[in-house]
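The passage that follows is intended for readers who have already worked through the single-chain material. We present the inputs for a multi-component assembly, then the predicted structure in tokenized form, and finally a short commentary. You are encouraged to pause after the input and sketch how you expect the pieces to fit together before reading on.
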Amino acid sequence: MSNIVDKARAFLGWMPLKVVAVLVVLCLLLRENFPFSHFPMYSSFSRNSYYVYVADANHEPIPIEEITSIRTSALKKAYQGKLEEVREGLEAQGVEIRGFQFMTPEQCRPAGEYTLRWLIENCKEHARPELYQYRPLNFHVVGLRYEDREIVSAPVHIATVE
Amino acid sequence: MGGSEVRRCCCVGCCRAVAYESWEMLLMRLFFAFVVYGTFMGLPAGVGGLQGQPDPMGLARFFDLRFFADRHLLLGLGRWMLIVALALYVADRLRFIALVIVCFWLIGPLTLELSQGVAKHTTQLLGLVLLVQVVYAGYAAVAKRRGSRLEIQRTITHWSKQAIVATYLVTAITKVVASRGEWVKDSKYFPVQMEKTRMSEYYNRLGVPKEEPRTWLQEIFAEIDGWFATLSVRIGDLFLASPDLCRAFLGLGLLLEFLAPVAMLGRTWGSIIGMTLVVFHLTISRIMALHFATNMELIAIYLINVPWLIFVGARWMRERDAASEAR
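Having made your guess, compare it with the prediction:
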């Protein structure tokens, strides 16, 4: 037994960049557990993507970062996270969904409403009065699709929150 | 001083800790302390007033970290404890205790910030560098490791460099695994991501600049920003028209991430890979509006080792002048 321990110790002593090896394994196993991460951003490309924006009662876009300091990319992450939950819930009920791009606006609505509420809860307190001036807030998603060296966009209204 | 290594195996890639001088590592610790302090001072804006940890990750899975949302605690007790700990760290006194305090006041609030259900990847590298430093400092303290203070400092620096290298390697591996080996092939869809970023940026502020330029210098920067924005659109169009060019460009980025371990071959390779990674980040920052300032700072400290480059450059110029005078 002690022989194996000695050999392991000798191997570790010899092994170059052992910290790299250990961290790579830990990051890949532990995934998103700060400070560890498997860094999944842009790890795969799809022909479909989308961006989001927030609009006022007349569906006119509002400069959300200027008002709340929250960026549309953060809204999109909150929306995407909730959308995954919604999709799992639908699939548990036996609804077959081939991909997010095939979900109907009605199916996406809970995620859109969650995102708008998340925005209101997470924006700075002093920003809320200005944000409330635009109520009811509307959440829009613009789908993007790569089609034969062109990008086709498709805007959809998802949710409204008072 | 020079490019000598403490030990070097015969095979390529088996590099050991570089024989840094004590003044180099003092500057590294000083710059690292500034990075930590700068990140900490940005925390109250990120975590201040947070009500919960709806999507707990890391330590937040086991502990309630909401007390870090108290701005007074962060800017009062937290800031002063951090300043004392960083001063000890820079002076290389009570190394382990100082690093434990730094980890507590940085990793704790950052974990809370990242437990809100919105993934961000701008501070993980700093967290990992801190983690490996505290692990080695703990090992050196507990094992009462024989060896000079200089040797322990060198190993801590060596481990910090490995944490940086590991991060880029993980990024590359994840790309290959998640795309089932088709990342480069599928990268022809990258213009879709560029368009998404461009339009998201537009809807952040509806085209209104963050600040109106007030001085001639700000006007120049605004001009440069506008120029880069136009360039980004042109690049997007070019990539859309030529998918192979897009694949070649992104393929180079992936190759660079896989080549990150080459930075461990010595000072020069560290600087070369480091500078390439900084250029890589600056390009991403311009094209995709993804800013990794902390990563670039850590790369400049540990891989590029800017003071060493200045020292070598000055020495080379002195020698050149002396040689020309001798002639």
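Commentary: The first helix of chain B runs from residue 22 to 41. Chain B has 13 helices and no strands. How closely did your sketch match?
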